[in-house]
Amino acid sequence: MDELRSKGLAKMNEVYGWDMPDIEGDPYFDLTVEHLFGAIWTRPGLSMRDKRLMTLTVVAALGNSDLAEIQANAALHNEELTVAELKEMAIFLTHYLGFPLGSKLDGAISKVAAKRRKAAEKGQGEDKKANVNDALKMHSGTTRED
Q1: pLDDT tens sequence across 71-95
Q2: Angle at the Cα of 109 from the Cα atoms of 69 and 22, rounded to 5 degrees
């Protein structure tokens, strides 16, 4: 594995708080790991929290609930934002994006918060494998087990 790919995969795992495997032979995964995470997310000048806020804003504007859940879960995992801050973000963005898109973001946040609360009540930690599978399924329609 070359240095840029290694750096990108490490940053991707830091950003999302999971253990994403190196998927070889997928040009889109290559672009994501090497460019987005290896060259963009590693740039200085903005904190991870700043980048997360911008990413969540764009995801909300696009109405992508699946990615909003992944981003919200990562923000909570990395302690960049609290559930209350995420909910406040949804309220604020609703007034710029409109109620349908704001509602989708709020729903994604509520779903993630409920899932994390249930796991905590059962004494379970975050299911990092499920997080990776959610991302892979969103990207390619398959999971690590497929």
Answers
A1: 999 999 999 999 999 999 999 999 9
A2: 20
